Amino acid sequence: MRDADPNYDLGENRSRLKSSGYTLCWEAGLWTEDAQPLWWEKTISRTRRTARRDHKNGRIKAGDQYWEIVTRIICDSSGASFHSRTIHRINHEDHHTSRSQGNRP
Question: Is the full-model pTM beyond 0.70?
Answer without folding.
Answer: no
